[in-house]
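To: structure subgroup
Subject: Chain for Friday's discussion

All,

I'm putting the inputs and outputs inline so they're searchable in the archive.
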Amino acid sequence: MFGYSKIKVAVVGIVLVLGAFFALPNFLPKEVYKDVPSSVKSWWRPITLGLDLQGGSYLVMEVDTSVLVHEKLEALADLTRSALREGKVRFSGLKVEGEALSIKVLNAAQLNDAREIIRKQENVSLDISSEGATLTVKYTDDALSTMKSQAVQQSLEIVRKRIDELGTKEPLIQQQGDARIVIQLPGVQDPAEIKALMGKTAKMTFHLVDEETSPQLAQMGKLPVDSMLVKGDETGYIVLKRAVVVGGESLEDSRGTYDEQGRPAVSFSFKSAGAKKFGNATRDNVGRRLAIVLDGKVISAPTINTPITGGKGIITGNFTVQTANDLALLLRSGALPAPLVVIEERVVGAGLGEDSIRAGTTACWIGLALVFIFMIVVYGWFGIVADLVLLANGIMLLALLSALGATLTLPGLAGIALTVGMAVDANIIIFERMKEEQLHGVTVPRDVLTRGFEGSFSAIFDGQLTTLFAALILFWLGSGPVRGFGVTLGLGLITTLFAAICVSKLVLMAWMTVRHPKEIKF
């Protein structure tokens, strides 16, 4: 069929039909597209415009790893205190200062025993030095590097979960440098809510209340080593046991709800292991108070009236519907390993985006018109074929971007404009090769066409391949807008190669089969 096998014709036809189908949402009016079922919209959608095209919020947040190290050392101090007592090692002055833990061993003969006990409390390498009877414990550089890297990666995933829970469309969340996270939220003009949610670590723990020590005695310095003084918004200062009954990492789900009096509250449920631990703790401590601590503050300290063995509970407090839902979201998405600090904040106005779209669209249309005119003037009928193939190429490029869920930024728009100019290069090479064949005495139209395509393939393929390498490097090493440019340029090269070699040849072969020209004229 047209000098092509039926399978090849079918493949080209199917690709073109699929391209038109997936590109269609970009041309549908908003009133029409909004009536499309949501299940279809999840995979059949228009290209999403990026922050620089439709406006929105841009945030750069930094993971405060110094807090992470301090918390790790505090946890190590608690473990070390208990372990040294069990090992009957006498000590004093156990405290955390900066990024080091210091401890004085009262019996010099037990220094080595103390070192070994301390090392067993951590699964990462520690640097333990001594000056007289005082031991100084620090994390090694490798341990610190690993710890901070893991904290940033974990923060990145939790930020992504929190943003996704809010329903923000097509956010861009990526790491910048060693400890920073870039958040781009297209269409969001007020980032206050985002900053409020991202700024909370949402570390929740359950602690038994130390009923034997009053807050007044604790403030006077008479605080047992296994207890801590914590402030709450409603409870005031309260003394809690340091031991964590169960942590927020054991939570399976949390939702905004209402208590028995109809006030906003937060319901939660534990995973199986957490439910068992929570059930044992409430069964063994009926009549005592159990405090719920969120980010270092007591939000509730109810009395355990009966064992809670179902793994479910409810947090009450001075909540509004919004704050209850926000807290549920934070607990559901997980706790940040360290606080996030806002380093940079920008709001891009929609007006700038509209100007960018208008300018980019105008550039594309002008470039397209000039290319169309040039091809028709120079190559006549073959120029018209090349222009039609260029349109098919543009539709397939839109289809790929839509199907992949790509976000189109201003550099990406520039990549499309560049593709328009480059897309006819392959056709020009083919047509010039056909002219050369005629100059060398080839007169049969089908032979001229066949040799033109065969003789130009290597030049076209090499040229597209080398440019594709450049696009891949931009995508691999670049970030943000640079990657957007690389994506549109790379996809444009792939569709250009398919359109020029397959679609163009099929159209010309079909024309030749139908018209039976005696010679080819340019």
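Points worth raising on Friday:
Residues 39 and 489 are 30 Å apart (CA to CA).
DSSP finds 17 helices and 19 strands in the chain.

D.
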